What we know:
Distance between the termini: 35 Å
CATH superfamily of the largest domain: MazG-like
Shape: flat
Strand content: under 5%
Largest sheet: none
Number of domains: 2
Helix content: 55-70%
Radius of gyration: 18 Å
CATH class of the largest domain: Mainly Alpha
Number of strands: 0
CATH topology of the largest domain: Helix Hairpins
Number of helices: 5
Amino acid sequence: MTIQEAQHKVDEWIKTFGVRYFNELTNMACLTEEVGELARVIARKYGEQSFKEGEKDNLSEEMADVLWVLICLANQTGVDLTKALEENFKKKTERDNTRHKDNSKLTDNE
């Protein structure tokens, strides 16, 4: 599935099952909540915390939840995520084309 297809599928799902989009502020709060849930799983799986009884390693589910709400925000604010990501690659390539290669913090540990 392309990003454009994902944006279309989320929009169709919202219109079919979700009645309407939550407003932008509500979706921003939802995105923050979902990022927190993702952070909790990562802290337990890769960090020093352990899973509590009843918690599960649902990393992919939490990442998908973050992506879902981000797509909702993009759809309701008129952002073409494909175009935005392409522009972001261009910006990062032009700005950072040697920055990371020249970063001793990244290269000295090889």
